[in-house]
Every structure is written in C-alpha cells, then in structure tokens.
Amino acid sequence: MSKNILEVSNLHMHFPVREGLFTRSQSVVKAVDDVSFSIAPGETLSLVGESGCGKSTIGRCVVRLLEPTSGHIRLLGKDITHRAQWRMRKLRRRVQMVFQDPADSLDPRMDVRHIIGEPLEIHDIGSRQWRKRKVDALLDLVGLPATAADKFPHEFSGGQRQRIGIARALAPGPQLLILDEPVSALDVSVQSQVLNLLLELQHELNLAYLFISHDLSVVHHVSDRVAVMYLGKIVEMGDADQVYYDPRHAYTRALLSAIPMPDPTVHRRLPALPGDVPSPIDPPPGSAFGRRINHPYLEATYGMDLTPLEIEPGHWVAPDPCAVSLRDLSKLGIDIYR
Questions:
Q1: 278 in a domain, yes or no?
Q2: What is the mean pLDDT of residues 176-184?
Q3: Which tops the pLDDT comparison, 5 or 189?
Q4: Whole-angstrom distance, CA of residue 318 vs CA of residue 260
Q5: Counted domains in the chain
Q6: How many CB atoms lie under 10 A from the CB of residue 17?
Q7: Residue of 252 and 105 predicted with greater confidence
Q8: Which of 101-105, 212-216, 258-262 ranks highest by mean pLDDT?
Q9: Per-residue pLDDT for 316 more than 80?
Q10: What is the 3-state secondary structure (H, E, C) of the chain?
C-alpha cells in the first residue's frame, strides 16, 4: 500500500464550450491535460505557472469541487475520482482548502466562532462545549486572541482574515491542505508572516501541502518539490533547489528571470517571452511552448510524447526540443534528427 497521502495519475479536466441555438458542445477547454504527481506526509509540493495554466483547477479536483474528466485521484489510498458526494463526507475531514482571497472565502454574516466551528458541526465532532474550547485553541494556534471569536470578518485585516481561514481549514483535523494562492492577496510584509505560520503548523501537525502559486520566490521558500505547469501540463518537476538553481525547461527559466531583484542597484534584462499563451480550447498539435515562441523545431514535436522524463534523480522535464537543450535531450535518449 502506498505511503503517499495524495496520488494524482493522468488527470484530465476538460470543460465543454457550448455554442449555437441548441447549445451543443462544439469544442472543449483542456484546463488540465494528463497531469501526474504525488505528495507524501509532511511534504510540500508547489504547482507554479501563469494564470490559466490549470493549477487551481487541479486543487479543486483534489477536493472534488470539480469532477475530473478522466484519470485517478487517490486520497489516503482510496480512489475518489468519481466517488459520490455522500461517500466523500468522511474523507473531506482529511483534505481541506485555503482560498486566495480571505475576504471572499469568509461569510460576512457569521462571527469567527461560527466560521471556525462550522466544520466541527458538519462532521459532528465533539460536544458544544468541546467545540467552543477547540475554536479558542485554533485561534491561539494561528496567532489570534480569544476575543477574536466574537467578531466578524470585516473587523480584521487581510492577514488576520487569512489566519481565520487557516484555522477553519484545520478544524476537522486534516492531513492535507490545498493552499490556493494563500498569500497573493496580502501585503508583502504580511505574506512572510502567513508563510512562516504555515511552516510552523506543518512542522507541528505534520501536514502535507499542495501549494498553488505563480510566484517562484515564494514557492522556493516553502516547498520541498516544485512542479511547473504550462497550458494544463507539467513541464518540469523536481526538488525546489533543483528547479530553482538548475532549471532545464526554457519556460521555467523565463519564470525565474521574472522574479524581481531585491537590490535596486542591480539592473537585469529580462528575456520576456514573445507571443501569448495558446488557447486551451482544442489546442493545436505539438509543443504549446514552441508554438508560442515560433521555434524552428516545432514541426518535430508533432506526434511526440511530451510526458516528463527523469533527467536526473528526482528531476523530471518534458522532452520538448523547443524548450530543452539538445544535450539534455540526448541524456533522455531522444534524437530529433532520427
């Protein structure tokens, strides 16, 4: 039996595009297209990429807010891909989600005690008095005073609201948290506080994280492994230091080069990617990245299997001639001139 908390295999999530008088499906948006990864207990795997690459869609599939088109999602060894919602009840205690905007994810009509205690009531955990004590303990755990329980979300700052969202996610005792851009809506000074809180909670509670972000500088600070996504596919995955200091895919290098330098006296030319991300609606054949930059090897990728291969222990990269050097392709056993 696998020791991983989460295993995602060949996941696809396609959305039909309905057009015409009778709203027939004419095409599909391939938001997630053949994605595989796993997360072990206490590990943080980060999904990184531009807006629209499918990373948030994966998070929603994992918690079954969306039902995948195909593939498999195994949570604690149980296949939940197409499990009925009523059968998901017990497993939902084990995976919770923290959303991007704390102002929108908290009900403004409920006080903090009810917001945090609601998951306990839904799952019928403990007595009423026990839940009250549990809410107080969770507030203390995320660094908020007990007096916060009787206040409403609008009375708090953005960072405090996100702490409330984290406390609510921790209430039922999860083993895996899906963190969907948890700090992108916060001020830079507050971001580090929330990130440090997440690291402390992970160490104390042995939590596993699926961390979704577009900011590689944030990701490097919190991650054990990083998966870089482009147009619904993983193009590179490996240990955080491997991906950060030795990127093998051109798209990963472009993301890294876009990280702002903390020293204002350093001037660095950013090699901006030309063109736009291709449409995920019925994408054309071949390398999506190669099509974006009009690479001369684009035609060579027609019909190629661009599923990531292991280029060195623990480091995977898509064998795309438009994004990977010929030297690295030869290490992967690929010769485009054959």
A1: yes
A2: 92
A3: 5
A4: 26
A5: 1
A6: 12
A7: 252
A8: 212-216
A9: yes
A10: CCCCCEEEEEEEEEEEEEECCCCEEEEEEEEEEEEEEEECCCCEEEEECCCCCCHHHHHHHHCCCCCCCEEEEEECCEECCCCCHHHHHHHHCCEEEECCCHHHHCCCCCCHHHHHHHHHHHCCCCCHHHHHHHHHHHHHHCCCCHHHHHCCHHHCCHHHHHHHHHHHHHCCCCCEEEEECCCCCCCHHHHHHHHHHHHHHHHHHCCEEEEEECCHHHHHHHCCEEEEEECCEEEEEEEHHHHHHCCCCHHHHHHHHCCCCCCCCCCCCCCCCCCCCCCCECCCCCCHHHHHHCCCCHHHHCCCCCCCEEEECCEEECCCCCCCCHHHHHHCCCCCCC
Which CATH number do you get for residue 264?
Answer: 3.40.50.300
Query: If you average pLDDT over residues 324-334, what whole number do you get?
Result: 90
Q: Is the pLDDT of residue 21 over 70?
A: no
Q: Using alpha carbons, select from 82, 144, 70 the residue that is nearest to residue 112.
A: 144
Least confident piece of the model among 86-95, 125-134, 137-146, 225-234: 86-95
List the domain range (segments joined by +) for residue 289. 6-83+214-331
Q: What is the pLDDT of residue 4?
A: 93
Q: How far apart are CA 103 and CA 297, in angstroms?
A: 46
Q: What number of residues does the chain have?
A: 338
Kindly indicate the confidence band of residue 277, based on its pLDDT and cuts at 50, 70 and 90. Answer: confident
Domain assignment present for residue 107? The answer is: no
Question: Do residues 134 and 142 make contact, with C-beta atoms less than 8 angstroms apart?
Answer: no
Comparing 263 with 69, which gets the higher pLDDT?
69
The whole-chain average pLDDT of the chain stands at 89
Closest of 184, 218, 235 to residue 54, by C-alpha:
235
CA distance 95 to 143: 22
Between CA 307 and CA 287 the distance in angstroms is 11
The answer to whether residue 165 sits within a structural domain is no
Q: Identify whether 157 is part of a domain.
A: no
Return the structure tokens found at 238: 């490996």
